[in-house]
Amino acid sequence: MPLPLALAVPAAAAGLAYLNAKTAFWYDKTIMRGMVPAMYKTSRSESADRCNHFYRLEEIAKSKSASRVGILFEDRSWTYAQMYEAALKYGNYFKTKFDLKPKDIVAVDLMNSDHFLLIILGLWSVGVRPALINYNLTGDALCHCVTIANSVLLLVDANVESNVDDTVRQKLGDLRIEIFSQDFISAALAVDPVRPPNEVRAGEKARDMAALIYTSGTTGLPKAAIISWAKVTTGGVFVRGWINTKPSDILYTPMPLYHSSALLLGFFHCVDAEATFAVGQKFSTKTFWKDVRKHNATIIQYVGETCRYLLAAKPDIDPTTGENLDKKHNVRIALGNGLRPDVWARFQERFGIEGIAEFYSATEAFGGTWNYSRNDFARGAIGRNGWLYDVFLKRRLAIVERDHETDEPYRDPKTGFCVAVPRGGVGELLYVLPEDTEQSFQGYYNNAKATDSKIIRDVFKKGDKYFRTGDLVSRDPEGRTYFHDRIGDTFRWKSENVATTEVSATIGLHPAVEEANVYGVQLPHHDGRAGCAAIALKSAS
Average pLDDT, stretch 517-540? Predict the structure, then answer.
């Protein structure tokens, strides 16, 4: 006999809830909410010859959101209409004063500020590409970054002018060097806001270069990763859909704008959402939460160890009322990458952060993983997915066994192909590259050898190509992806592989430990390396 309606409805609801919990369709929906619009918008922009992101700024500046605040810096604010006008002025100034041509490259050696962003948009308005220099660089590293970009102009922040000393100037030869000072700003903003014709930006493809962003240079000199228009568009559109950013949101970051995290996933994510981007000049535990409250931020951005630094800092106490201000803010999401598992829960609890949007990628990478976590289920993971998205991932990535002697992916002696690790096993993460690799994977500018080094061929069949991340990860049966170590950081001891990050994270769980760094050391008459830990203890106070 049929169930009464009063029983059937709850039973169906319970069944759907169970199915959702088992398949995680709800989470796949959040990923697709970002992925589908990102793919569509990239394709549409190319077909309309509007890949240049200057057009997105123009679109907002001429819409009902023109008066919405787009940038906050210190005590200054810029509406989208004001940003558009300033971008036109900067573009006109650069073109007329320095005789810049479309596709020229300008080395931008600036600290974080509102004008950093306006200059990028201004250069794009006249079809010029920025090469974003780490303003801490000096000497040979600085000269290298400027030179490999074939820069026609170097713009240097007045605050780091001393980095461009006589030796640097001599090595750069006759390259024009301009100091970015208040006089420069005044001169640029005094010109007319002339809109360059579409012809100077015409013919751009999604794969074409929008900017150069440099690797950290931990293994040799920095390499210039090519940032395509597709990355600018998809990065911003995806994150907006993934964490459901609204125009009313305000994202605060003091992370360096010369990196892709702050620029692409921070600023251009806000531009896509028509939201507000609040930028700090640089990170400091003393000013971070003050700036967050000042700008009424609803989203904050972190990179690497910044959350641990904030957790280690003393509480911010109101000098008048004595109130602990740790949770006195409007932040609902912390967005970033590199949040250590041993810090994750403590950071959320102390500062009252509802959600952590942790991602994993690299500037030059051909993919990424995403974990928007609001409970214990995926805490500490760099990515997660349900059954539906898992079908997509199986065609986009692979985790393969590592040869611990060579630090290369292990190849089966019989077949010559790599070996995929079972679910839950640890191996190197690889991303599938399309057949037209030379067109789709830009790699590094003016460095074919470095670009080729990131590609591994004949992985599972003849002719296939994958991007090597150089990172060891695992994926468990419930769709969670975990970072284990960077290849080169792991070491082998008595036939066991030791992941330095896992050991340091475990040591860091002890309440007396402030920070732990684990590494391998060689011992006489022993194979492999023994574990060694450098530990900083918390002060007694």
Answer: 68
